[in-house]
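> forwarded from #structure-qc
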């Protein structure tokens, strides 16, 4: 609906509900091709190096107060570290494919990660300062009001920076220069087919998007807690609050993705180094002053 794409809305009848199922079956039956000049070992394991870190993100995200795989004391640090590992897999895929378009896409992805990981880390550090902990459950419990609205203005600015950085790290439009179809076909995964493509590219992209939506909801929207501290809302299960907030973030990410045109590589770098990173440093200083004096 957002893109005005009518084709995928026919499969299965009601709003194309069977389109994803049909795509999955199609990829299962596609031939697994490895280019003759490719480094076959690196080429084969690269999709796993991209996909597995995405799964590992979910281990420390609190779905409810007592529903979490592992509540690490350094949960936020763990997320920021694991979230960037997938780029190694992208570099492996592009470098082993013996394809210049794949190599260019991989190098663009690495350059983009370096630029936009810093705003994510700085905005995440500011949230940890406000909460006084790196534990994700602790961050949620510290939010009597969602950090997006409290402290006034500061939380919203951190939210915007974190969201922009996350979309850039996921290489989603308008930050999709590493996979620009009109220039690089499918970026680092140009030479992949079948299940290697769907795990390394499609599943990883969708899983990354949902994970970052859940992380953003946890850091800024109160996670499994009600949006406002009102007693009747406490009766709603935390799992439902978490699902609604994460779904809203996925909707917002898709809305941005289908609305804005792709930025050029130089625009991407300038936006990160000249705007986002200096602004993030200022907000960290403001957050420190808020924690100390307010």
């Amino acid at each position: 609906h957002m893109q005005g794409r009518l084709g995928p809305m026919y499969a299965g009848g009601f709003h194309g509900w069977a389109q994803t199922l049909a795509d999955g079956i199609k990829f299962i039956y596609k031939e697994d091709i490895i280019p003759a000049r490719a480094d076959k070992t690196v080429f084969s394991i690269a999709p796993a190096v991209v996909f597995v870190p995405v799964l590992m993100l979910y281990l420390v995200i609190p779905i409810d107060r007592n529903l979490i795989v592992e509540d690490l004391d350094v949960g936020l640090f763990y997320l920021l570290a694991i979230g960037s590992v997938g780029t190694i897999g992208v570099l492996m895929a592009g470098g082993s494919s013996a394809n210049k378009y794949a190599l260019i896409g991989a190098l663009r992805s690495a350059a983009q990660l370096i630029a936009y990981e810093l705003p994510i880390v700085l905005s995440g550090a500011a949230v940890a300062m406000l909460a006084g902990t790196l534990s994700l459950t602790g961050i949620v419990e510290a939010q009597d009001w969602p950090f997006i609205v409290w402290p006034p203005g500061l939380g919203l600015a951190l939210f915007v920076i974190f969201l922009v950085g996350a979309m850039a790290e996921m290489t989603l439009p308008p930050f999709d220069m590493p996979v620009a179809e009109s220039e690089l076909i499918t970026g680092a995964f140009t030479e992949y087919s079948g299940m290697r493509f769907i795990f390394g590219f499609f599943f990883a992209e969708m899983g990354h998007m949902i994970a970052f939506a859940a992380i953003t909801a946890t850091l800024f929207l109160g996670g499994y807690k009600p949006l406002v501290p009102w007693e009747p809302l406490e009766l709603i299960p935390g799992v439902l609050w978490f699902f609604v907030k994460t779904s809203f973030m996925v909707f917002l990410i898709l809305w941005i993705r289908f609305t804005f045109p792709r930025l050029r590589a130089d625009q991407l770098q300038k936006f990160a180094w000249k705007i986002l990173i200096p602004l993030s440093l200022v907000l960290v200083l403001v957050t420190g002053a808020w924690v100390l004096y307010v």
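QC bot note: The longest helix spans residues 100-131. The chain has a mean pLDDT of 86.
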